[in-house]
């Protein structure tokens, strides 16, 4: 195979590593990275702005023909050595399929909220794996959109990997200003529900989720700030039995989204 890149100083490889490790670099370039056959295929299928496709020798031999059948008119494809692939990989057993992708224009909460839609608001979530799993679950359950506020970087490799491609299919907005967030949600007629651990909150099983709805999930360790919970239309709780009084944030979000759609 001709033109196999072996140098770690290749400009594309250096850019990939910068984007993989730094939110600042991702914001500066307006780019993020993908790793893995499935998520790269999803990005190609959804026409998600892949600018560079990077394949190891082994991956090019195994999947190159399949991947190159996609519309790659705006995509540059390079082949790198297997050793270089191991060097830039963030997974232990890499498939050798990587890509650099354009970050789409940031959407506001108001731009994705529609009448009778059901939305999940991730407020202050910091665990990338949890955030990715919540986005994936929202996609699976037919939630209409996810709004991130004060949470970790949507385009970090771990969040992207944990979404399993759902990041390309879900309507996702970012609004870090709490005042603007509530103004947009309530301006669209959304009923806002704060998920809390409080015996005075309404059991989620007794809530009416008809109409436009947005459920707030808070930080993994601290939950929602009390002022944010108070600004919501109502506070809701997942009824629990035994000695357990809290759930993993992603698990709680899954239950709440199920109730939203039920």
TrEMBL record:
Keywords: Methyltransferase, Transferase. It comes from the Bacteria. Pfam families: MRM3-like_sub_bind (PF22435), SpoU_methylase (PF00588). One of its GO terms (biological process) is methylation. GO terms for molecular function: RNA binding; RNA methyltransferase activity. SMART domains: SpoU_sub_bind. The keyword Methyltransferase applies. Residues 33-107 form the RNA 2-O ribose methyltransferase substrate binding domain. One of its GO terms (cellular component) is cytoplasm. Belongs to the class IV-like SAM-binding methyltransferase superfamily. RNA methyltransferase TrmH family. This is TrmH family RNA methyltransferase. It comes from Ruminococcus flavefaciens.
């Amino acid at each position: 195979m001709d033109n196999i890149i072996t140098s770690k100083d290749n400009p594309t490889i250096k850019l990939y590593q910068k984007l993989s490790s730094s939110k600042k670099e991702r914001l500066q370039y307006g780019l993020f990275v993908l790793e893995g056959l499935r998520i790269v295929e999803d990005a190609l299928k959804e026409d998600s702005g892949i600018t560079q496709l990077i394949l190891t020798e082994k991956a090019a031999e195994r999947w190159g023909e399949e991947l190159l059948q996609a519309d790659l008119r705006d995509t540059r494809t390079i082949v790198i050595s297997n050793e270089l692939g191991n060097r830039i990989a963030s997974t232990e057993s890499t498939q050798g399929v990587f890509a650099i992708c354009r970050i789409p224009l940031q959407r506001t909460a108001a731009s994705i909220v529609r009448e009778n839609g059901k939305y999940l608001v991730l407020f202050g979530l910091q665990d990338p794996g949890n955030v990715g799993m919540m986005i994936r679950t929202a996609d699976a359950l037919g939630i209409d959109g996810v709004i991130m506020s004060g949470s970790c970087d949507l385009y970090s490799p771990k969040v992207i990997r944990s979404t399993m491609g759902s990041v390309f299919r879900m309507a996702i907005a970012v609004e870090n200003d709490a005042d603007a967030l509530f103004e947009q949600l309530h301006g669209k007629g959304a009923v806002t529900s704060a998920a809390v651990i409080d015996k005075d909150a309404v059991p989620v099983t007794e809530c009416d989720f008809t109409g436009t709805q947005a459920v707030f999930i808070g930080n993994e360790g601290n939950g929602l700030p009390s002022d944010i919970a108070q600004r919501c239309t109502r506070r809701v709780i997942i009824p629990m039995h035994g000695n357990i009084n809290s759930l993993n944030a992603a698990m709680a979000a899954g239950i709440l989204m199920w109730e939203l759609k039920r």
